[in-house]
């Protein structure tokens, strides 16, 4: 694990690190905020998965999360959204390839070699963190924005017991029924749509649900509402009687101004779950 | 005044606007956060002047100021740091020309035509804001970072009665004695150093001081401490018996991680002055 930068922030440390990823077969960069409490022992962890076009850096600098995490004594992990670098496949479109990993393990060419973001986020990066850093991996929660909200919800439902709580800002809720999803799932997983279902939060909500609290915020003026399809997730959760708070926030759009406006409440929500018992 | 973007944020609006500047003889872009209270009447104003290389955007997205301003019902103005665009002079160095206006009125070529940031911030932009927006210009305060801290301090001391309070994050404190200053003051104002004194916070502190509270934060690990020279301002303020809180914050550097870590306290400090009487 190589240190790219470390800045003191809110009494703790905002670091950026590089490590070799087994799953993605390349170097990966991630951000990690450690609160002051990490000097004295292992602290709980909140994962923040980012959206299309983002690197590890966007949320780290624009989501205004560190102050609230410091107040709660929680670490924040900001992974990248795809493999990158020389020899890693890419596409001219902003919503495919680098910056658009969609949190799946690709099986199709030219993506299969490097685009294994599911394994990267659920196996590779957590083992590396556990070995090297004062994190209490029995206390994990996950959140994300847009494509990262999709990743957070699908991972939380697919890995029972891993995360105590899940939240999302403007998540892609139903990728199998949206242009933010059909294109990418087809490219990464192939045309057999039965393989796509494991990566659709609305379908997973119908099939499995989540054993813990869920918080979703969505802006009523989000310019991408038609692509996000929050209605499918809201409906599936209600049908399942899932414990969930699903809010449509009047006037907010898809930007980090929306994300940062509700960050305090999301971190307080996760803190309650992370510090329970 | 042309709207470039408006995003709902913390119950209010984060806008970006363009207008033609009389002083700079070009279009200028600025950010403005209006809290929800501005719908019902004029609100107090906190100016945030940015540092070298910044545009109006950096602090608007990275300083985490809007949430605290919303809580206090205060508007935030984020001006650009120089004139820009076709026909505006520039220099290859990051610390001269576009992005490095130093908050002075240039008298030397090739800068004199456009580089009049002192007049832009103290006359041009405030009149435009007063005419068009629900701002209470009898309740103004000013802050800034690095070169912007220099601007905030020099303007506050040079315009008695304009600002009720002044604060700064890692300000350039003594530009007439530093490579962050001598080069630019010479380029913009010429070699007669007597014209530089009006733009040196430490000299102004000795000569005039500020009729109100002053708050300065500085990181002990700031990589630019030798250029900022906080010791000259601290000494001048102490000699004058100026009302001031000057803090050296252990472990912090020059970045927005430092700025955002102390933003809550700076905005609370200004709110107290803005709402007095």
Short description:
Chain A is of the alpha/beta class and 277 residues long.
Going across the biggest sheet of chain A, name each strand in turn: 1-2-3-5-4-6
The best one-word shape of chain A is: globular
Distance between the termini of chain A: 33 Å
Low-confidence stretches of chain A: none
What's the overall average pLDDT of chain A, rounded? 97
Structural class of chain A: alpha/beta
Q: Secondary-structure element order of chain A, as H and E?
A: EEEEHHEHEHEHHEHHEH
Rg over alpha carbons of chain A: 17 Å
Helix content of chain A: 25-40%
Query: What is the number of helices of chain A?
Result: 9
Count of DSSP strands of chain A: 9
> Describe the biggest sheet of chain A?
6 strands, mixed
Which pair of protein chains has the largest interface, and what are the residue counts? A-B, 23 and 23 residues
């Amino acid at each position: 694990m190589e240190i790219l930068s470390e800045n003191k922030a809110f009494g703790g440390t905002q670091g950026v690190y590089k490590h070799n990823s087994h799953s993605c077969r390349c170097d990966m960069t991630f951000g990690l905020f450690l609160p002051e409490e990490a000097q004295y022992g292992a602290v709980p962890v909140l994962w923040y998965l980012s959206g299309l076009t983002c690197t590890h850096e966007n949320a780290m600098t624009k989501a205004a999360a560190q102050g609230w995490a410091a107040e709660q004594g929680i670490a924040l992990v900001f992974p990248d959204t795809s493999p990158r670098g020389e020899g890693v496949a890419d596409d001219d479109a902003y919503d495919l390839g680098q910056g658009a990993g969609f949190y799946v393990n690709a099986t199709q060419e030219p993506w299969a070699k490097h685009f294994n973001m599911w394994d990267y986020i659920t196996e590779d990066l957590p083992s590396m963190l556990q070995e090297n850093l004062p994190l209490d991996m029995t206390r994990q929660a996950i959140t994300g924005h847009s494509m990262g909200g999709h990743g957070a919800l699908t991972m939380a439902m697919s890995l029972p017991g891993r995360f105590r709580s899940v939240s999302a800002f403007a998540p892609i809720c139903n990728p199998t029924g949206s242009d933010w999803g059909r294109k990418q799932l087809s490219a990464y997983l192939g045309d057999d749509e039965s393989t796509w279902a494991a990566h659709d939060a609305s379908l997973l909500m119908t099939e499995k649900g989540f054993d813990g609290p869920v918080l979703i915020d969505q802006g009523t003026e989000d310019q991408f509402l038609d692509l996000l399809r929050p209605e499918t997730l809201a409906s599936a959760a209600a049908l399942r009687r899932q414990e969930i708070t699903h809010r449509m926030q009047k006037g907010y759009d898809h930007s980090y101004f929306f994300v940062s406006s509700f960050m305090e409440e999301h971190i307080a929500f996760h803190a309650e779950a992370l510090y329970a018992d």
